[in-house]
Amino acid sequence: MIRFILSRLLQAIVVIYVIATVVFFMMKAVPGGPFSQERNVSPYILEKIQEQYGLNDPLFAQYKNFMWDLTPKKLNLTKLLTFDLKGGLGIDFGYSFRYEGRTVNQLIKESFPVSLELGLYALLLASTIGITAGTIAALNQNRFWDYFPMSLTMAGICIPSFVVAPILVLIFGFWVPEAIRLPILFWEPPYEAGFFERASYKILPAVTLAFYYTASLSRLTRGSMLEVMNQDFIRTARAKGLSERAVVVKHGLRAGMIPVISYLGPVAAHLITGSFIVETIFMLPGLGRHLINAALNRDYTLIMGTVLLYATLLILLNLAVDVVLALLNPKEKLSLKNS
N or C: which end of the chain has fewer CB within 10 A? Predict the structure, then answer.
C-alpha cells in the first residue's frame, strides 16, 4: 500500500508539472497580453509595466522562473492549514496583474476557504441524500419508492444550477413566511451573529450546488445496488439466515458503493473548487469567480495559481478514492499487497 501511494504521488508530481507547462505556453500563445486593454496608457508606461512583471524577458526565462516559483521548497503544516502556500510550501505565484498590489497567494488564501466550505457542505448533502435515495429505490424496484425518487432525480439532472438558484431564491427568500425565510445573498452576515444565523446564509448556495450531483449519485447508486443485490453472494448471505438489514448493509452496500466512490473523487474536486454560477448568483467571495475573471483579463499568474490548485485537488482526491476502493475491494487489496 505504501509503495502504491508513493508511486501515485510521484506520478502526480509529474502530471502537475506537465499541466503547468501546458497552461503556461497556452497562455503565451494567445494574442495580446494582460495590459493590452489599457488604452489610455502610453507605450513607454506600458513597456515599464511589462518590464516590472517580467513579460519582456525571453520566453524560456519566464518559463524557468515560473516553474521555480511554483516548486515547493519547504513544508510547514501550520501555515499550510491556513492556506498560506508561500509560508507552508514556499510556493509563490507572484502578483496578480489585475488586482493591484495583491499577490495570487493572498487571493487564494482569502477566497479558497469559502469555496472549500461550500463544496464540503454540498458534497455532504449530495452524498447523504443521493446514496440514501438510490438505495431505497433499488430495494423497492418498480414500486412507489422507486418511481418517486427517480422522478425527482430526472428533474435534478435536467434543470441546470442557474435555473435552480433563482427558483430557490424566489421560494425561500420571498414566498415562504418571513419567520423561516433564508438569506439570499452573501456568505456570512455583516455583523456578529449566532451559529444558526450564520449557518442560514450557507443553506441556499450549498443546496443549489449539490442539486445536480444529488440526482446523479442517486441514479448511480440505484443502478449499482440493483446489480449487486442480484449477485450469488447476496443469495448465499440470505440462505445463511442473515437479516435483510445485515445483507444490505454488510454485503450489498460494501460492493455497491465501489462505482459510487469512484465517481465521488472528481465530484468532490469539482464541488470543493466551487462553482462560478453559484458564487455569482449568491455573491460569494469564492475562488471560482477569480478564475473566470482571471481568464477574461488574461491574468497569467492568477490563472496559473487557480488551475494548479484545482489540478492538485483533483489528483489528491482521486488518490484518496483509489486507496478507499482498495480497502473495500478484496481483489484490489490483494493486488496492492503483491505489487
Answer: C
Q: What pairs with residue 95 in β-bridges?
A: 103
How far CA 322 is from CA of 1, 11, 267, 317, in Å, comes to: 11, 14, 14, 9
**DSSP per-residue letters across 92-137:** ---B-SSSTT-BHHHHHHHHHHHHHHHHHHHHHHHHHHHHHHHHHH
Query: Is the Cβ–Cβ distance between 129 and 218 less than 8 Å?
Result: yes
Among 35, 25, 209, residue whose Cα is nearest residue 126: 209
**81 phi/psi in degrees, rounded to 5:** -70, -20
State the Cα–Cα distance between residues 336 and 339, nearest whole angstrom. Answer: 5
SS3 content of the chain, % helix, strand, coil (to 5): 75, 0, 25
Mean pLDDT, the chain, whole residue set:
81
Each residue's pLDDT tens digit, 120-158? 899 999 999 999 888 888 888 888 888 888 888 888 888
Q: Which three cell numbers stand for residue 303?
A: 490563472
H/E element holding 309?
helix 300-328
Count the residues in the chain: 339
**120 in Cβ contact with 209 (< 8 Å):** no
120-129, 213-222, 259-268, range with the lowest pLDDT: 259-268
Per-residue confidence at 37, pLDDT binned at 50, 70, 90? Answer: low
Domains of the chain from N-terminus onward: 110-286 (1.10.3720.10)
The model's pTM: 0.81
Give the Cα separation of 293 and 283 in Å (integer): 14
The whole-angstrom separation of Cα 225 and Cα 137 is 9
| Residue in the block written with cell 511589462 | 50
> Backbone phi, then psi, for 101, in 5-degree steps?
75, 5
**Residue written as grid cell 488564501:** 109
The arithmetic mean of pLDDT across residues 77-95, rounded, is 85
Task: Determine the residue type at 67.
Answer: M
CA distance 91 to 84: 9
